[in-house]
Amino acid sequence: MDDMSIGAAPAEHMDEGAIMSLACTLYEQGAWAETFRLLRRLSASGERSAPLLYNMALCLDQAGQTERALSCLEKALSSLRGGRRERRKPTGDEETLRILYECQCARAGYRFPMRMEEAACLPDYARERILRLMITLCARLGDAARVRSLAASLPGKHFDDVEKALAETAERES
To answer: What global pTM score does this model have?
Structure first.
């Protein structure tokens, strides 16, 4: 655990963005219990963003609580759908930031913490990550119909994890 991050600004005195950033860093370091504690604190304060719910789902998955993780992912997906999307042309710096986030996220896969900025800058990518984790968890539960339905929400996209989930559930059905 990164003691400097915790000691530099105790979580009690940090704003929501800083707490989320710390939670993401702690998750990446394997401090899942501390991550979950920080995320629960944000949730108790009324935060209901897609990144918060996605990150809680990651922690719940680590704890083997698949149903609860799926519930968080469903709420995360709903919060993305309910959010307002601005369709204005991005400024040069915003476009650069979007491109850099795309490059960064493309290398990382989908089972890593979602940062607030990434979800705001790349809402379609955030949706994709939520759906991919939902597919993985539904496959673990053997819910073939739901795996197929969720996979159909990713038209024109090919992901090895989604293909694996489809194959696993089809095999269980036979």
So the answer is: 0.83
